[in-house]
Design goal:
CATH topology: TIM Barrel
Number of domains: 1
Order of helices and strands: EHEHEHEHHEEEHEHEHHHEHEH
Strand content: 15-25%
Radius of gyration: 19 Å
Number of helices: 12
CATH superfamily: Luciferase-like domain
Distance between the termini: 10 Å
């Protein structure tokens, strides 16, 4: 997808499903690249698969594909170790890595003894330390969560990877504008939310990276596409974790009655190829610099390939 109405190039990507067997990642990564998409994102959820290991595998098995990790919980790793691992990948695959850092799910962080007393302060310290180390700086920090004494990477990457913050709240988005290269918002963040998030992170201008995960389902029958999206929408509502996203989606009570068809139309890219192309353009027009599809339903690889065919320009021509 080329320049949109807000005059920025939009990168298209796909997420390797978080609960898919990790043995399928090599084939998925190769087929995302063959489909012509720009980015592959991997998910680090407790206690499934390691984000850095998955990213290393995907980078090694592809040639041009950019790989993102969305996201690394801030307190799961010492920031010096995180910078070492991220820096190593960035040196081996310059210009192809993006890392999102976030709070992590509170119950999981408590479960592993990694829940900070002040979540926002800890996130800011970790992001600041990791980014400074990747830039080759010597870091001394005695904060509430990060304690480093004259730490520096021996061989920082020549091409410094983007580090963004994964968040949905106004404080986290403001922090993304102040301390990071941008933000990553999860599935359920519709175009209105993306536009709002860009404003929250603007300091004074919107950040360079504005990445949106977007549910996607390609079906000639729009009703079948909406039906395939329903389980993901119900789970998103049941989690109750995204008050700002619910508000922007017009959901007053996520536990109450909700029009799932309307939510599918607002929050997801779905339907036939032309409808999917139009849906992706809505997110681009709202300010997303990366639209990263989360395939739902059966055959995620086939869905990614259909999205590529619908959205990626062909040599000498244009996508649907």
């Amino acid at each position: 997808m080329s320049a949109d109405s807000k005059q920025h190039r939009v990168s298209l990507g796909a997420v390797f499903p978080a609960r898919a067997p990790v043995e399928g990642l090599p084939d998925f990564a190769r087929r995302v690249e063959a489909a012509g998409l720009d980015e592959l994102w991997v998910v680090e959820d407790c206690f499934l698969a390691g984000g850095l290991t998955m990213a290393a595998t995907a980078l090694a098995l592809t040639e041009r594909l950019a790989v993102g990790i969305g996201l690394l919980p801030a307190m799961m790793r010492n920031p010096a170790l995180a910078a070492m691992e991220i820096g190593t990948l960035a040196r081996l695959h310059p210009g192809r890595l993006t890392v999102a850092i976030g709070h992590g799910v509170p119950s999981w962080m408590a479960q592993i003894g990694a829940a900070p007393r002040r979540r926002m302060a800890a996130l800011g310290e970790v992001v600041a330390a990791v980014r400074a180390l990747l830039r080759g700086e010597t870091v001394t920090m005695d904060g509430g969560a990060v304690h480093l004494d004259a730490v520096a990477l021996e061989h920082p990457p020549a091409v410094v990877p983007s580090v963004v913050i994964g968040t949905t709240g106004p404080r986290g988005l403001a922090l993304a504008g102040e301390r990071a290269d941008g933000f990553l918002v999860p599935e359920g963040s519709g175009p209105g939310f993306v536009e709002w998030a860009s404003g929250q992170a603007a300091s004074p201008a919107p950040p360079a990276r504005r990445i949106a995960y977007v549910w996607a389902r390609v079906e000639e029958d729009a009703g079948a596409a909406r039906e395939a999206l329903e389980p993901a929408l119900r789970q998103w509502l049941d989690l109750g974790l995204y008050p700002e996203a619910y508000r922007h989606a017009g959901v007053e009570d996520p536990a109450g009655p909700v029009d799932l068809a309307r939510l599918a139309d607002d929050l997801a890219v779905h339907g036939d190829p032309a409808a999917c192309a139009a849906g992706a353009r809505r997110f681009a027009a709202a300010g997303a610099t990366s639209v990263v599809f989360v395939p739902v339903g059966e055959d995620p690889v086939g869905q990614v390939e259909r999205l590529g065919a619908a959205l990626v320009p062909t040599p000498g021509g244009a996508a649907t």
